[in-house]
Specification:
The chain is of the alpha+beta class. The protein contains five helices and 30 strands. The chain has helices at about 10-30, 40-55, 65-85, 95-105, 305-310; strands at about 105-110, 125-130, 135-140, 145-150, 155-160, 165-170, 175-180, 185-190, 200, 210-215, 220-225, 230-235, 245-250, 255-260, 265-270, 275-280, 315, 340-350, 360-365, 370-375, 385-390, 405-415, 425-430, 435-440, 440-445, 465, 465-475, 480-485, 490-495, 500-505.
Length: about 500
């Protein structure tokens, strides 16, 4: 060696270990586009301690047994890996490479469920049970189909589940589930006794389009094209139904969703508005005076307001002071109620359509409650987009005229716009890293970056394009719905001709 000192064959071994660890750290650093998180900072502190420990074992004087030093270095390297992968680091982040490989290799299963029997019609909705043991299929021609998603085995067909199209299915637990239909009713079913309904619920005046469930209060929440959002007390249901009340009403209602913690309700409309009820209390009933509240003028923005509006991802609407002078400069809150159910009205920014009048056809929420996922079409119905909007709970205070501004457009991508007039239901993966979006005669797996990172780890400063991980074309007709399994590395899609395809990794 140039120093003239004898070398030890074991010393390069420790150096190689250090180099390997540094290379692995650099790989992990590249997967995040955000600054190092506090958790990562703690991990770095632990790393420094481990290397100080290594220096201490050498005695700090440069003397001592070389073999012992190498052994201590190896011990310190293992200790470093242990500390870095300790409770301060989310273990799921170490597996993102494996998950990316798995989802990138997704292909239609050879034993996919083929339901092209001409009896049930188009597939409008797919829903897995919470334990992933049952896949339910809502069909156009009054039927509900049940399958084992692992074996693709048919379990049961509910031939006359409703008297018209079945639109949506929601599991309340691993056994009890609800279905809704264009026949204006909701039905409750028990997997242990599928020969008959548990009960039928009557209260809507038009097509019932989707179902949500508040696990805290055990209230079933439904919405329909009659503009009503109705709550049903499942704690007191009987064979004749269960107590219900109208919770909210608005015109042009398309979809309604609850956030995972049930603290907010989001409502999309065919006129392009998005309604957000904050600090949700489903035990109250909201009475909105008239629809002109939702049709109020676009608030004029000052220089400060313009920057806030661009960050919010949508234009904020306030009440016209001539019509409601007592509400000027205040949050939009339904009269006579506590601020727990304050109502915010937004026109989400759409990349290709700056004017109002877009139709928000599909509405989903991130499984961790970080963002909302919208499928939007232009008012001319000639373009279609998938957009992700971040909830800005910790945003800086807004001007008094615009106190909340909760959403910011972070990612988007243009869709194929095939099958006009049909609603395409997209979905998040259980960990929130991927989006499965119907795309013509197939589906696309979309992510926030190339490594399928967490949304929180790759939040762009400016609006960015969603990254296409994989496109799969496995149908002979327009795909209308998709759904990830909550427990298996699997997802399903259903199309207009009635076929359901299951997808799993191909090894």
């Amino acid at each position: 060696m140039s120093s003239g000192q004898p070398s030890d064959s074991k010393e390069p071994r420790a150096d190689l270990l250090r180099e390997e660890e540094e290379e692995e750290e650099s790989d992990e650093d590249r997967c995040s586009s955000r600054p190092t998180s506090p958790q990562a900072g703690r991990g770095g502190a632990g790393t420094q301690v481990s290397w100080e420990l290594e220096a201490a074992t050498d005695g700090g004087t440069g003397s001592g047994d070389r073999g012992s030093s190498a052994a201590d270095s190896l011990f310190a390297w293992i200790c470093k890996r242990t500390v870095r992968r300790g409770p301060f680091v989310d273990p799921a982040r170490d597996n993102f490479r494996n998950m990316t490989r798995l989802y990138s290799s997704m292909s239609p299963a050879t034993d996919s469920v083929n339901l092209s029997t001409q009896t049930h019609g188009a597939v409008f909705n797919l829903e897995y049970s919470p334990d992933g043991s049952v896949l339910t299929v809502a069909c156009e021609q009054t039927e509900v189909l049940l399958f084992d998603p692992v074996s693709s085995r048919h379990i049961k067909t509910l031939v006359e589940a409703h008297e018209d199209c079945v639109n949506n299915i929601r599991f309340l637990d691993n056994r009890l589930f609800a279905t809704c239909s264009d026949d204006t009713t909701i039905a409750l079913w028990d997997l242990r006794k599928l020969n008959s309904k548990v009960c039928s619920l009557h209260g809507h005046a038009s097509w019932v389009k989707n179902i949500e469930y508040d696990t805290h209060t055990r209230l079933l929440v439904t919405s329909g094209f009659d503009g009503n959002v109705i709550t049903w007390d499942t704690n007191r249901f009987t064979e004749d139904g269960c107590p219900h009340k109208k919770f909210f009403h608005t015109r042009y209602l398309m979809r309604m969703r609850l956030t995972p913690d049930c603290s907010k309700m989001l409502i999309s409309t065919s006129s392009g508005y998005l309604l957000i009820l904050h600090d949700l209390d489903l035990t109250q009933s909201l009475e909105v005076g008239s629809y002109r509240i939702l049709r109020s003028r676009r608030a004029p923005l000052s220089t400060e307001g313009s920057s806030a509006g661009s960050r919010s991802g949508g234009s904020r609407h306030t009440i016209d002071s001539k019509t409601h002078p007592h509400r000027e400069g205040k949050p939009l809150i339904c009269e006579g109620l506590s601020p727990r159910n304050s109502l915010e009205v937004l026109t989400p920014e759409i990349p290709g359509e700056r004017d109002r009048g877009n139709c928000i056809t599909s509405l989903q929420l991130h499984p961790k409650g970080w963002a909302t996922l919208l499928r939007c079409s232009s008012n001319m119905d000639d373009q279609e987009w998938t957009c992700v909007y971040e909830f800005q709970e910790g945003a800086p205070p807004r001007p008094p005229v615009s106190p909340r501004c909760s959403l910011r457009l972070t990612h988007y991508i243009e869709e194929a716009n095939v099958g006009r007039g049909y609603i395409k239901e997209l979905c998040f993966s259980p960990d929130g890293r991927l989006i499965c979006s119907p795309y013509g005669y197939g589906v696309r797996l979309l992510a926030f970056d190339e490594q399928c990172g967490e949304l929180a780890d790759c939040m762009p400063v400016r609006t960015a394009l969603l990254r296409e991980i994989r496109s799969i074309y496995s149908h002979s007709d327009v795909v209308l719905t998709s759904k990830f399994s909550p427990t298996h590395c699997q997802f399903a899609s259903g199309c207009l001709s009635g076929r359901v395809a299951l997808y799993q990794p191909h090894f």
